[in-house]
Amino acid sequence: MKNFDAFKAHGDIIWNIANLLRGPYRPPQYRRVMIPLTVLRRLDCVLEASKDAVIKYHKQLKEQIDKDGKPKYDTETIEKMVNHKFDLAFFNTSEFTFQTLLGDPDKLVANLANYMAGFSTRARKIIEKFKFEEEIDKLEEANRLFDVVKQVAAVDLHPDTIPNIAMGYLFEDLVRRFNEQANEEAGDHFTPREVVKLMVNLLFTHDDLVYRKAKLIKIYDPTCGTGGMLSESEKVIIDPDTGLNPSADVRLFGQEYNPESFAICGSDLMIKGEDVKNIVFGDTLGTGKLKEGFADGDGHPDEHFHFMLANPPFGVEWKPEKDFVTKEHETFGFKGRFGPGLPRINDGALLFLLHMISKMQPAPEKGGEGSRIAVVFNGSPLFTGDAGSGESNIRRWIIENDMLEAVIGLPDQLFYNTGIYTYVWIVTNRKTAQRKGRVQLINATDFAWKMKKSLGDKRKRMGDGTDGTPDHLAAITRLYGDYAHNVRKTVAEIQTNIDPKRDQTKSQCVSKIFDNQDFGFLKITVERPLRLNFAVTDARIAGVKQTNAFWELALSRKRKNQAQIDTEVLEGKAAQAAILAVLEGMRPAFADGHIIKDRPTFDKLLTAAFAAAELELDSKLKAALLAPGSLGEKDPSAEICRDKKGHPEPDADLRDTENVPLPPGIALPLPLDYESKKNKGKVDTMPLLALVQAHCEAYLAQEVLPYRPDAWIDHSKIKVGYEIPFNRHFYEYEPPRPLEAIEADILALEKDIMAMLKDVTA
Question: Cα–Cα distance between 244 and 249 in angstroms, integer?
Fold first, then answer.
């Protein structure tokens, strides 16, 4: 960009002014003062030329009254009229400017508050989120306010000096620098610069929509934080020197629930002269809480976007939004945002992706332009959740509808507040022909450069070709764009300095391509038959006494009439005694260790004994007496227990599950409904069973029956699961080093330690 060094110099001046805050503020807190002051100074410069005329016209409108003596225009109408007349997105009616504020140092606190209150409604609501009034009082008490305002007022941020796009770069750079100072505090709301750049690069690679002349392009971030992803996207498209399509009409949309981050993002748009109404303050998922200026749920309900980016919170509970989200899921299903399912309560990241998918433009085959999404997750959304769970069903819905285009694994220790591995998902409903039905996995975990100074948990960065680093971002983007299977690169080709001792000639796979079906599986339930032997012994009679059916006989269901309660209890105890008497009568026949391994045979003996005693043996009591742990005992040599239809009864303790890959060539989406609260346990498996039953039975015959010939599959319990085992697909076995080499390393280490100890004790 032309004269960028000159614009950066202005940023350096503001950065240096922050040193005046030393003492009352710690360096990580400087941004609380300098960012809002930079915003106010820019707005002051932007409005300078029209200020007097705006005040005059605004006063005229306010003073006009109708025939009833009431104000002719309300505040909203006046603001619209002022903005229209002067072609402004906002204005300020305070008599003060940054220069005139300095004329009365004793009243600076009150006058600065007056100046801030003079902004039009939309701008004021953004500025208020900084809570700068608290900092004004603190600065005044520390005797720093006048000096800081004076220094900021001397910085020329007029559009003639710094055009809008350059001011956007300057502001973004300041936000980044201040946030890096406050790395841990800002980590939840600030995505590392190189991650943002990579996501933007991937999003626009080989996408012809972004190149259409004068094209209206809508870009959205539902967790926009300070607006870094939005700003970078806009810059890549319309930068006058390097942009992909400077003629495009780019419109930015976002939503953010953190007040300070929202204020920074909204301010970024204001200082670039853009419409700030598209940045909404509120919880994207919805909390059910209503308050002024706060969006409850989707802040852009009627909008759909061409490109979307997000860095949702990692591993954060969505308990505050649970009632609202669950209600939407159950009420609207696939007509709402959360049709496929809901993830577990301790990680709501996938909810944001579902929200973004709901904001897609219609696919090209449906007459629309389609959309592309780049979202960064931790590893959990790739594999968490069993078959049929909310997470698995979300993955299933995305993959079976051919929306997942690529997953890029990033290095660890990239983020300010966590050292975990992260993954960028590319999701779209406008895949190119060659990508349809397939997913690309890119292993970029080694594309990292050790930082000279750590920032919180951030110890690595992906190089961008500056500061002596290799251009990892370009290399990863090239892997994505080339779309090749089984691509291998050596450590030397990757260019990483993380472990200088690594063998530079060693290669690893960095790109693989899979069919959508490769990520799906069938979870089958393998049953084995229940086998029991029977006897009547002291030990087994003791087991009978512990059964609920026996114990409940002596309980009364009456609640108020004590006489009736006592009568029922006595009758129950008598029934218990009678049952025990029958069993005692049967016990001698089993005194010599005799057991019966056939349930029907023992059933006849038991029934006959109760009949002889003229006692009723109802089905509940019989089931309790014949159960394992009562008169029955599990015995692999006994006969199989069967139901009334002659089918084997399953033994729950021997039940197992197997994950079976989908049959080769099976068509997607699968004919199996998504389970919800309304149809829980009632999903019809028959349409799916017609396609996979033979496949599952073949698996059983090959993998199970040779070892357990009495096993069978309960096809009514079949479930579909989807997971993306990223690490497994790129795992390559490495044999352990020779013992001699390990021993040599240990001896060398011991030698070094002894040398250091000698130096210390010398």
Answer: 12
